[in-house]
Amino acid sequence: MIIRKIQTIVVPILFWALLTKVLMVIFNGEAFTVKSFILQVLSSLWFLWAVFYSSIGLIIGNKLFKDNILFHVVVVLGLMLLPNMLSKDLYGFMYPYFAIGYYANKHKIDIKSYNIKIISATYIIMMLFWDKNKYIYTTGLSFYNSKNVFNTIGIDIYRWVIGLLGSIIVIWVVGIIYDRYNSEKLDVIRNIGVESLGIYILNIYISNYLLVKINIFESLNEAIYTIICFIMSLIITIVSIQIINIIKKSKVLNRLSLGGR
């Protein structure tokens, strides 16, 4: 099972990191060193690393600790105690969601059984208190060297709760859509889900290495900028799916760049 995770997640990370590094050497004249490549691998595509580490954690919890929830609590607390290195805070932030999803699936928890009105109202109220200090990128997860440990813990809990509520709402909405409409008409949404790994990878590289060079967006006001970002996301998704279809024509390239999905 772990080998499968390496093949489907780590191999694509290595492939895209190597490709990026080679292109940077060719076009930007950067030096290629083992150290710089390792850092490139460990610092790129953080969400895939989060999926990989979380999957390993869930496998260990299942095989060695018989799905004892306490094991995952200890893991999260351990991550909160460690200083942030190589996006560790991002992995730690995502870990509880993977664990919750795992247990929800294991125990066949039905999202529709929850009172979505109360959940939505709570989510909206909590969002009223959202500010830049609530972003995981801003304040991080760890209370290592934190000046106010209790404040840091409070922010962490706030983020996890609001993220969980938002996830429940999205899952509930998608479930309603699937129940009310002909499933054949929703093939586009299903295809996006199937190709989510490839879309994520291509979106990261297109955004970080192509769109970042378009400085015109920086001068726009926030509302227009948000609308443009939404439109660009749709365009990038469509372009990514087309690129994925081309990649999949080669079994070797598909296995290396997309994990053989």
Question: How would you portray this structure in words?
Answer:
With 261 residues, the protein is an all-alpha fold. It has a domain at 185-261. It is built from twelve helices and no strands. It has helices at 2-28, 34-43, 46-65, 69-81, 88-106, 116-127, 136-139, 149-180, 187-194, 196-209, 222-247, 251-258. The radius of gyration is 20 Å and the shape is globular.
What is the C-alpha radius of gyration, as a whole number of Å?
20 Å
* Contiguous uncertain segments of 5+ residues: none
Please tally the β strands and state the result. 0
Task: Quote the distance from N terminus to C terminus.
Answer: 16 Å
The gross shape turns out to be globular
- Helix segment tally: 12
Looking at how many chains there are and whether they match, the oligomeric state comes to: single chain
The largest sheet is: none
SSE order, as H and E?
HHHHHHHHHHHH
Transmembrane segments: 6-27, 39-62, 68-86, 157-178, 199-217, 223-247
Domain Acyltransferase: 1-239
Protein name: Acyltransferase family protein
GO molecular function: acyltransferase activity, transferring groups other than amino-acyl groups
